[in-house]
Amino acid sequence: MVPKTTGNRPFLRYVFDVSDTGTRKNSRPVNLWAMKDEYVPAVQEALERYAADYGSTVLYSSARNEYAITRMGRILTRTVLTLQKHLHRGSFRPESFELSFQHADNLESINVSLSEQEKLRLRGRIDRIDVAEDGEHVYVKVIDYKSGHRRFDLAALYYGLQLQLVVYMNAAQEVEAGRYGDKEIVPAALLYYRIDDPAVETPVELTEEEIEEEIGKQLRMNGVVNGTPGIVELLDRDMEAKSDIIPVERKKDGTFSARSSVLSGEELRTVSDYVSRKVAEIGREILDGTISLNPYEKGSVEACTYCAFKKVCGFEPAMPGCEKRRLEDLDREEALRRMEER
Ligand code: SF4
To answer: How far is the CA of 148 from the centre of ligand 1 (A)?
Structure first.
């Protein structure tokens, strides 16, 4: 975790490798996943260590910054508690934290061949890879930590706007294939976890247990899950009609409801192959110098809204030749159909 202080107040940039608590039991380091109540002081101590590294004068320089540090402590504690709960509910164990592509440069999915002489090398870092095993398979879950809400959008993925999580899964599968050569590697879930300590608004008084339950629901992970029988149970063995840790709910007949974010194993393969082709296509366009001013607009989302180049790029919608690409919304089936066709 890193409290970042480059702006005018500190904020929490990451919570990743929580294996290093500085605590030891029988000379072995204890990681936060395995700690019970003692994780609270461990989190607080770790935060204070980092605060000291950053220079306590900066981080404690004003009441506002001090409040930010207190809030970070609350968010971190909530995050560890929730992630512990998620792990205890399933059969997965964390295997890699903050895996940088720099240290995995032998992977095909991040060293994309564009021609015999040309390669596109992707940069990135997978926040967490978890695995679960049975006799023949290794199931892989990738988690991307976010500070805001994020949902898995197949249409955005089709247009090349949301490739990151699938690129991470493709890379994670290669990494795990290298580790468990004799087993079949199966993508189980591609998930976003929102780092927050949300407040619960309610018109009636709730017990502490009910408040915790509400917070847990708000911190349910988004993303997409492999619907192959047995995999949901590996992710959440206590799930009844609706999981409060993964985006899955079942109808009375046992099938997944329309609100679930589930793909079959075959559909996940389609998405994975499509993303590999799309990355190569984008790489080709970059090398060919395709840099036309043609920003997208999809529903209420526009490429230009937060773009850092806005002041210099010269895009002016009123000028001839400056056109936005209006991307039509696609339902799940149509997005998958188009991915198969390309
Ligand atoms: S502001 Fe300019 S560079 Fe940025 S997305 Fe819009 S058109 Fe492209």
So the answer is: 23
